[in-house]
Amino acid sequence: MISIIEAINLVKSKSKPLAKETVFPIEKSGGYLLYKDVFSPINMPPFRQSAMDGYALNLHDSFIYTIIGEVKAGDDNQPILKQGEAVRIFTGAAVPDTANAVIMQEKVVTNGSELVIENQLPKNHNIRAIGEQVKKGDLALAKDTKLTPAAIGYLASLGISHVSVYKKPSIALLTTGNELIDAGQELSYGKIYESNSKMLQNALYNLKFYDLHFHKVEDIYEKTLATLHEVILQHDLVIITGGISVGDYDFVGKALHELQVEEHFYTVKQKPGKPLFFGTKNNTLIFALPGNPAAALTCFYAYVYVALQKMMNNDVIELPRVKAKSLSNFKKFGDRPQFLKAIYNDNQVEILEGQSSAMQQTFALANALVFMPEDIENIEIGNTVDVILLPN
């Protein structure tokens, strides 16, 4: 049995960026990292552009100008201005080549075709220069940049429709257990509705991992072995729930051993989630999570989340941690460090009732986990505690 820190460090060291490339339309590339540098195919802006609504001027010594026309955004006309002439212009419109300043509309007085300004303007005032944001051929976004909505909007403004991104992992979700049935079936005695796959599916979708493949295996060794062999060959990441303990019908560990999966750890000194397996075969990562739902989800956020971020070559690979004042008392039994389901708000945290590894109802309310180290036995109201913030 190893410590939490040892386990997390092993996940970090054994998880590598996929370094697989795929090309996506930019509107579907949110959350991905750029696989290669993107260079601008155009100047941005591609023409001298008005920074505001107002008037484009051909400057002269007087404060009085003659208005000779109008240029709207999208117009391709090029009125020729003599010194002392102006055109009405709007934000984003192309500034005529013969204009050398734009004055905002609030700074002028107009009377018919006559325009009066208050002060002399410097040349190029309120004019966005060609290529001011980025020049044609220059680096627009560097490799490994995360594609946020703003980044996608920026690339779209350059006329870029598709980008090369790191391929996200193909993930197999495998659940085991003869007692599990699907929702909609009659709940006969001794059966329970399978929830882990739906829970983990949603957690993965929430993190924008969509390449998921589902497998359900009965507690029969040969079927467990065959299914694991297949999914390890076909996917980058395999997540198994259940069957990793030491019961007579827990076949996952035995099957992984027979398949020559390299074990990096099995059992972690923690609660919940002591029976946790992590291993690799070739380039595939394999996690076998506990069958109890709350334990499975806790281990997902503490370990699988880290592996996913490493596979995507992200810089930030662990969930954020903050310090908060406890609104609750809690007494720990035993010496294992513990992840406690909790509600965090405004630098305060409430530790919830029902910390059993099977208690999904409590987890349904939680937005955080309070981490209680090995050397802490009691948390009292007002104590400062470590809080792990869960996604969304």
From TrEMBL:
**A GO biological-process term:** Mo-molybdopterin cofactor biosynthetic process
| Originating organism | Confluentibacter flavum
What Gene Ontology molecular function terms does this protein carry? Answer: metal ion binding; molybdopterin molybdotransferase activity
Enzyme class per UniProt: transferase
Query: What is the stated purpose of this protein?
Result: Catalyzes the insertion of molybdate into adenylated molybdopterin with the concomitant release of AMP.
Under InterPro entries, the record lists: MoaB/Mog-like_dom_sf, MoaB/Mog_dom, MoCF_biosynth_CS, MoeA-like, MoeA_C_domain_IV, MoeA_C_domain_IV_sf, MoeA_linker/N, MoeA_linker/N_sf
Q: Which family does the entry's similarity section mention?
A: Belongs to the MoeA family.
Reactions performed catalytically: adenylyl-molybdopterin + molybdate = Mo-molybdopterin + AMP + H(+)
SUPFAM superfamilies reported for this sequence = MoeA C-terminal domain-like, MoeA N-terminal region -like, Molybdenum cofactor biosynthesis proteins
Q: Which SMART domains match?
A: MoCF_biosynth (SM00852)
Q: Which cofactor does it need?
A: Mg(2+)
According to its UniProt record, the EC number is: 2.10.1.1
Q: Does the keyword Flavoprotein apply?
A: no
The entry's protein name is: Molybdopterin molybdenumtransferase
Matching entries from NCBIfam families are given as: Glp_gephyrin, molyb_syn
- Describe the location of the MoaB/Mog domain by residue ranges: 172-310
Q: Which GO CC terms are listed, alphabetically? A: cytosol
Q: Which keywords accompany this UniProt record?
A: Magnesium, Metal-binding, Molybdenum, Molybdenum cofactor biosynthesis, Transferase
